[in-house]
Amino acid sequence: MANNIYLIFILLATLFQPGKLFAQEYLVGGDSDYPPFTFIDKTGKPSGLEVDVLEAIAASNDIKVNFQLSSWDSALSNFKTGKTDIIIGIIFSEEREKFLDFTIPIHTEYYSIFIRKDLPFNDLSSLYDYRLVALDEDVSIEKYLIPMGLFNNYVLAKSIPEALSAIELGLADYVLAPNLLGLNVIRNNKYQNIEIKGPSIIPSIYCMAVKKGDTQLLNILNNGISELRRNGKLTEIQEKWKVYEQDDFKYKRTAKIIGIIFIIAFVLLILVFIWVWLLRLQIKKQTESINLKNQELQKSEEKFRIITENSSDIIWHLDSNFHLTYISPADERIRGFKREEVIGKSLFSILKPEGIEMLMEANKKRMSDLSKGIRSAPAIYELEELCKDGSWVWVEATAEAYYNRDGKVSGYHGVSRDISERKKAEILLKERESQLRELNSTKDKLFSIIAHDLRSPFTAILGLSELLIENIKDFKVAESEEYLGIINSSAKNTLILLDNLLTWAKSQTGNNIYKPAKTNLTAIINTIIEESKSIAKIKNISVKSTQTDDVEVYADVNMLKTILRNLISNAIKYTHSNGKIAISAVQNKNNIEIRVSDNGVGMSEETQNKLFEIDATVTTTGTADEKGSGLGLILCKEFVEKHGGEIWVKSELEKGSTFIFSLPIN
Question: Is the distance from CB of 22 to CB of 77 less than 8 angstroms?
Fold first, then answer.
């Protein structure tokens, strides 16, 4: 009886183990923003490849798992302090193996170099010149960045989204990150300024991990992963999340099977020899048929060669990376390059930046259409291509993509023709249109001045002269002299305005001939002062030159006189009676600065900014109600710039103005 009770007790103990009665529960940590491996979805639920894998293992091993996903640094901290039992979505490294036990690999991924598009990248040495954004506590730091000497100029980011955001915003230049994860972040955030350059690096093995020495839990996870791989569920999960292993690692796994295959292959080899012998008889017959077809093909190729090599247009082929694989002799006739100098070179090496940008945008659209099952029609581009002598030639290129059996673009072919003469005609037409608009503007300006500014002084002259004629006997001599002085002043101002109109019209139509020569500046200043004294005398204004030495400049005499005449005339107009005007010249190293200063009404800063603009000509009445068109200063600016000099003004309201212009000595 006692023995029977003992046996029943053992049986019950065996059947009802604590682990069978109560399922073991484990806390699982991981990154909350690491798609497609681990992340919190829109509903707040833990999701991702490794979440699905662990849930499948838990279901088949009668264990419970509770996920506590957080930021990656928090996930590592929680695991190290014992707050979680399992960590998922972790990359294997020797450094981490000191405090973790890793499961067998779930997936293998390469790291890629994600870099700003506008940065040149020739090879890995280019990275030394750029600013790195490193992922905090990432395996890339120990595995690659420190050994390569790249961990110097850097900033830290806590996640891949944060790192790629810094690059998009221009706060850093590049980051090393897992290929799939980086592409996922770029696609989700629609980043436009980041691309992958350079080779794939740092093969990274994604695993789960437990505390060091927790062999029971490690065995559960390893057995579960092996079972999922054996029954195909792991592949289904990987397909669901679009995660595929790099070919390099597939080949390594395949290498283990090669040994077995080799034995089978040896046996098959003997059978193949027999099969080959039988085939030889058939091949011999087919060879004769193929030789006949080859002869026909050679004739066809010869016809094609004759057509392409004698065509005036350039016929070309590119591979899928835009490298030239064929170009016809017409290219040498048009651009000067021999065929061997361009074959294998990138098309982008002979285009201007705007041409490259145009083709890249077109190719981006082509790839987008192809992803929707749409094959783009042939396209026509107008581009500038580099010639051997360094010049540029306009060509019109008709291009079409061709596709391989998988429906992917395998290259491009097309025809280009020289359209330089057509482009020159288009440019000339635009220039003529611009000139026509300028001439039309000149005409409108002339009509405006003739209709208003030139008519006003004649009205004054006619009115005063009629008044004198009608009342000559009644006026005293002083009154008559006053009226005659006004008439004389108006006539001279009108003559200056008329002279400016004619001179400006000539300059706009190209009839004003520029003839510079060594000229005595002092003599010309004195001449213009003498011409201006009669006008200045009416307002009792003194006009003096402070320049005593003879100074020579290299200038056109007529243009120089026009400049001085207008500046002095303006100074008289805007200076009160009994005012002063001074003309001086200061010689510098390469030029001479001539100054015309007055103590008149001055002008505001807003008026100064508009003085020399033809479309915003500023006209104000003088201190004696004198009229003006504002055209004189426009002429001054054009003539000074014709000499290679500059003109500007310094002025304050009610304190006078100083107009300064420079002329070359030689």
Answer: no
Backbone angles phi, psi at 336, to 5 degrees: 95, -10
Mean pLDDT, rounded, for 636-665: 91
Of the candidates 601, 527, 616, 610, the one whose C-alpha atom is nearest the C-alpha of residue 571 is 601
Is 348:358 a contact under the CB 8 Å cutoff?
no
pTM of the predicted protein model = 0.35
Angle between helices 557-573 and 521-538 (to 10 degrees): 30
Buried-state track 144-160, b at ≥16 Cβ within 10 A, e below 16: bbeeeebeeeeeebbbb
How many CB atoms lie under 10 A from the CB of residue 12?
9
User: In this structure, what token pair is assigned to residue 473?
Assistant: 């006997």
User: Degrees (nearest 5) of the Cα angle 120, 123, 128?
Assistant: 75
- pLDDT one-digit tens code per residue, 231-281: 999 999 989 988 765 444 444 445 555 666 677 777 887 888 788 788 887
Q: How many CB atoms lie within 10 A of CB 60?
A: 15
Say if residue 135's pLDDT is above 80.
Answer: yes
Q: Are strands 86-91 and 25-31 parallel, antiparallel or unpaired?
A: parallel
The dihedrals phi and psi of 305, each to the nearest 5 degrees, come to -65, -45
pLDDT class of 40 with cuts at 50, 70, 90 = very high
Answer whether 194's CB lies under 8 Å from 168's CB: yes
Q: Taking Cα atoms as reference points, which of 186, 150, 188, 156 lies closest to residue 168?
A: 186
Q: What share of the chain is helix, strand, coil (3-state, %, to 5)?
A: 50, 25, 25
Phi, psi of 418 (to 5 degrees): -75, 120
Considering just the CA atoms, what is the radius of gyration of the chain in Å?
A: 45
Using CA of residue 61, residue 63, residue 68, residue 73, what is the dihedral sign?
negative
Position 6 scores a pLDDT of: 46
Confidence of residue 211 (pLDDT cuts 50, 70, 90): very high
**3-state secondary structure string across 249-282:** HHHHHHHHHHHHHHHHHHHHHHHHHHHHHHHHHH
Contact 188/180 with Cβ under 8 angstroms? no
d(CA 458, CA 465): 10
Place of tokens 């002085």: 485
- Distance separating alpha carbons of residues 13 and 519, to the nearest angstrom: 123
**Predicted local confidence at residue 262, as pLDDT:** 72
Does the pLDDT value for residue 414 go beyond 70? Answer: yes
